[in-house]
Amino acid sequence: MERYPFVHDPSKPFIQQVGDWVADVFYELLPAAGFEVRDEQIYMAFQLERAFMEKKAIFAEAGVGTGKTLVYLLYAICYARYTRKPAIIACADESLIEQLVKPEGDVAKLAQHLSLAIDARLGKSPDQYLCLVKLDEARFKDEQGGAQWEDLYENLPEFVNNPQPMQKFYAYGDRKDYPHLNDEQWRKINWDTFQDCFTCDRRHRCGQTLSREYYRHSSDLVICSHDYYMEHVWTFEGRKREGQLPLLPDHCAVVFDEGHLLESAAMKALGYKMRHVVFEELITRLLQGEIRESLAVLIDEAIDQSEIMFHLLEQHSEAIPGSDRKQIHLNEQLLKAVHRFRSILTAIEEDLVFESQLYSLDDYQLRIVEEHIEMMQKALSLFENSEALICWVTDSEDGLTLSIMPKAVKEVLQERVFSTNMPIVFSSATLSVDGSFQYVTDSLGLENYLSFSVNSPYDYPNQMQAYAPNLVHGGSFSEKMGIAGQLLERTDGRALILFRTHEELQQFKQQITSDPRCANMTFYYEGDQEISYLISAFQSNEASVLCAISLWEGLDVPGPSLSNVIIWSLPFPPNDPVFMAKRNASLDPFVEVDLPHMLLRLRQGIGRLIRSRGDHGIIAILCEELQQRDAVREAVLSVIPEGVTLQEAL
């Protein structure tokens, strides 16, 4: 294929030539294919030209319908070919990745209408892949789903369980390939953070490994999630030390689609998870070699101290309503146990230096143990300064899981992302609050950046009706159910219902079956099947209803299939340890933390309704706080599209 989609003149600045070609695309080539000329889109294109020219970060806030994805794709593809390195497109989650590359998605549109061969490959997170080890465990231990797991095993590619050298192989095991499994079933067989891939004798036949080999060779785009990109950043140096390739290939630019969500992804990637059973299994590997008695004693002490620490964590943790996370109440006894455990780990590390010189331990196993202990030391060291620490525990079949993350991710982002001297695009319809980007830039620690905002081109007053029904019974669940039934009947389904919590969704799922108005409607529930499959089914089955907790951003379903968006509760942040820490660090938690988070997400939720100039529909916000708190009502009114009136009567 031609390297560039235009005639390149080496004597002229390359990005300037890209800008000229992009202008031709939006003024001539795409309109000739039936696309409309959008001034907002062209304005964004000229703004991105500057960011790519100066290799700077830019906050590109463009309203729904501006076609912002097409703009950043064109620049990213051209820049990738110029630098001979792929560009990274990092989406907020895996469902948005699938929407970008679906047959009717934006990558396909550009390829079709510009006759442009685009090499776009998916770099999905590890938990989106089948784990062969966990599949075997499910086959032999899960009696309830035994036949299902056996069938799945029998349908694996032939090379997976063939002991002969692989002559022909391909990536497999993607979550998308198993749409019939619900999320709970999938968690029984997918990769998780406690899988020891380094010593797995099946890693070279693993679908996750083979997928990495595939996407590394992309010449244009690697499309991944925010989580996976930050995992790449966080593990980059460690993987190099271990002689492994980084998760993602060397790249020329990064686009963070729905960029307002990057901070939470960064915090998640920079976090640590620990379980006693995993530590015990790992540390006892050292006992398989010829080691000195002093090290063996330290290993026994470490196992005992780990048990003590996790026992205290369980004693001093408290369930958080509406969350599977338990808040840890730090106290002197617990902190002493953590410090004691760290001192034993330090002694083991010192002894391992001596043991490594005796060559009595397997070098590969020794390196794995050392890396794991180093990780635990980094995690537990945060307890030395509890002000910099966010931690919680969750229950699991294998005992308590301790999660630890640093409060601030600014330093890591500044050092490993923003100082890389490459174009970085934050793209979203919601990056600012009250016209200011400060809420997002402060959370990321970014000071030197470009920014712009353009509004949506849609005629919202004539395309959208918005309602906030007066909840006379205080917004009880039964009252909301009654209103929801009325709204669903009005549009004959064709609705997206957005819930704030999993508990709300499950309660709705249980109660809607008794509403005769909805008896003939098909309902799809997030968690029941793979999410991109649910979205496709919802779009195809016009009179259906999609119920979700994670689709506030990115869902793009133009046409009558989505004519009604019901917002069950205002999307205030959860009362979990992460946001509790943010609130504790704030002078006015409601104004500085809760309200900006809610408004950004609410704007996104509202944006799911009108996706084309031909769309019409209704938005309904079922929230008692609109009547109880004037500040909340004023804030919500500020994000309703201009010209749209928030009505009480349906």
UniProtKB/TrEMBL annotation:
GO biological process entries: nucleobase-containing compound metabolic process
Keyword entries, A-Z: ATP-binding, Helicase, Hydrolase, Nucleotide-binding
Domain Helicase ATP-binding span(s) in chain numbering: 27-307
Recorded superkingdom: Bacteria
UniProt GO MF annotations: ATP binding; DNA helicase activity; hydrolase activity, acting on acid anhydrides, in phosphorus-containing anhydrides; nucleic acid binding
Any Pfam family: Helicase_C_2
Family label: Belongs to the helicase family. DinG subfamily.
PANTHER family for this protein: ATP-DEPENDENT HELICASE YPVA-RELATED, DNA REPAIR DEAD HELICASE RAD3/XP-D SUBFAMILY MEMBER
Name this protein carries in UniProt: ATP-dependent helicase
Organism: Paenibacillus crassostreae
